[in-house]
Amino acid sequence: MTPSRIELRITEEDRRIARLAAAAVGLSLLDAAIPSPLPGVKPGLANIVTLFVLARHGWNTAAWVTGLRVVVGSLLLGQFLAPGFFLALTGALLSLATLALAQHLPRRWFGPVSWSILAALAHIGGQLLLARLWLIPHDGVFLLTPIFAATAVFFGTINGLIVARLLHETQSA
Amino acid sequence: MKHWLTLIRPGDWLLMLVAAAAVGVSFPMLWQGGLGERAIIRLDGQVFAEHDLQTRRTVTVPGPLGKTVIAIEPGRARVVSDPGIRQYCVRQGWLSHPGEIAICAPNHVSLAISGRHRAYDSLTY
Question: Is residue A20 predicted with pLDDT exceeding 70?
Answer without folding.
Answer: yes
